[in-house]
Write a structure and sequence with these properties.
Helix content is 78%, strand content 0%. The protein has 6 helices and no strands.
Length: 138
């Protein structure tokens, strides 16, 4: 088989995989939820404000900077507003679904290239060492 034939064969299989992913009901629902969130400017603004406040809060906390009661209260209020927003909750869930699909595909492809064969589920998702997964050391 020539390099062009292998590329065409792999490309066709990738096309088939992408077609299956796009047709998957759970993936389609997750995309619809993400799109509904992104179409709502108020939900997006609240999510961004919450994310920005969370990042700032964590940075200040880790640097040992004191957080006033008023700042902590504002942050808690923002978090409660974000958590009670159905579009934001659905968006976060949708992100999880889509990330899981991406991690699964990437994990199997990466392990296949490493091992030269189709890996088992345990080989792809086994936790090893103390550093966690995704670091590239295992």
């Amino acid at each position: 088989m020539t390099a062009i034939e292998v590329e065409s064969s792999i490309e066709q299989k990738l096309h088939d995989l992408c077609e299956a992913i796009a047709a998957d009901a759970e993936v389609r629902e997750a995309r619809e939820q993400a799109e509904a969130f992104l179409a709502d400017a108020d939900a997006v603004a609240l999510y961004r404000e919450m994310a920005r406040a969370n990042h700032e809060f964590e940075e200040r906390h880790h640097s040992g900077e004191r957080i006033s009661d008023a700042e902590a209260s504002r942050f808690a209020t923002l978090r409660q507003q974000a958590e009670s927003n159905e579009l934001i909750r659905n968006f976060i869930g949708a992100q999880g679904v889509l990330q899981t699909v991406a991690d699964t595909v990437n994990g199997f492809v990466t392990k296949t290239l490493e091992k030269g064969r189709i890996p088992t589920h345990d080989e792809v998702f086994a936790k090893s060492g103390g550093c966690g997964s995704g670091c590239g050391c295992h």
